[in-house]
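To whoever picks this up:

The parser on our side crashed when reading a file containing two proteins. I've narrowed it down to the boundary between the first structure block and the second sequence. Both blocks are reproduced below exactly, byte for byte. First block:
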Amino acid sequence: MKPKNLTYMLSDIDHIVVKELLPIVQGSTILLLYGQLGAGKTTLIKALTKQLGILDNVSSPTFSYVNVYKNIKTGLTINHFDLYRLNCVDEFIDQGFDEWLTHKDTLTIIEWPAVIEPLLHNKSLQEASIISLSLSHDFAQSEIRYLTITSIQQTQKTK
């Protein structure tokens, strides 16, 4: 999949999630969310988890590093990481979070993933689709958002 660039109004986020993200979030998927503060990462995650049937209050786990959500009807588990405060990849590994990346049939969402990028080349992740979502917004028009979707690695099921 070549990179896909989208421009949308914040009020259209549910439509963007249904049309663009739900079709590519299948099986074991790791979503890497890049963007400055205020770009809309958490807003996008809230819309995605809502569409996936998560009833919990979704928020960024800035201080706990991870929130886990579960759809009790479908059994889907979503691990939502916020690594804004993480200083190095060793801190991620020391917490045992690197093992969470290999959970089968789990959606893993990672905000601020740059610090753990070296782990994404691990052979144990070859069963996972890894997708980069780069978000930004127009400072002059706060309702306008930009999203670039780039597939970094696809499993055989999603190719």
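<<boundary where parser fails>>
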Amino acid sequence: MPTPSASTDDSLPECALRAAVTALGVDWQQRPLQPEPGLAALLEQPALNEGEKATVVQALGAGLIDVCLAHGYHSMDLVVLHPDTPGLQEALARFDLPHTHADDEVRYIVDGAGLFGFFDAQGREHSVRVGPGDYLRVPAGAEHRFTLTSARRIKALRLFSNTAGWVAQYTQRPAGPMEILE
């Protein structure tokens, strides 16, 4: 299986970062994207309307049926963030605060890039850069945070067993802003 995107945690080699993230219960895989030309053109657009989002979900969601069945995910949608997204700065400020969820947080990145930070029991943060083809399943209760890279653009399928369980529960852990690398 191909290796997920390179880490941004300079203190650990990639194999050690993968082990640290896996030890936290995070399922981090590379599921290569090979979209048809029409779908690839949609993914290149910065913004999508609701119909275009539904087209992407329908086209790519079928490739995630195995995880939906294995973990009881009943619905999925496509989140699209780009520099012109209304309220983007406020949303990123919330995402960047360390938090947990009562349900798994599942993301399959289909365009753009971001950074996930995962906290271990000793309070160390392990940062992972994600990009197209990266699949992350962050288990319920795992402390983490997220931000975009300097390109400020990402599209990701989100899978849910219960959308109410995805509400962030902030941990109040002090943490500076994540380093935004390209």
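After patching the parser it read the second block fine. Residues 10 and 127 are 9 Å apart (CA to CA). The chain has a mean pLDDT of 89.
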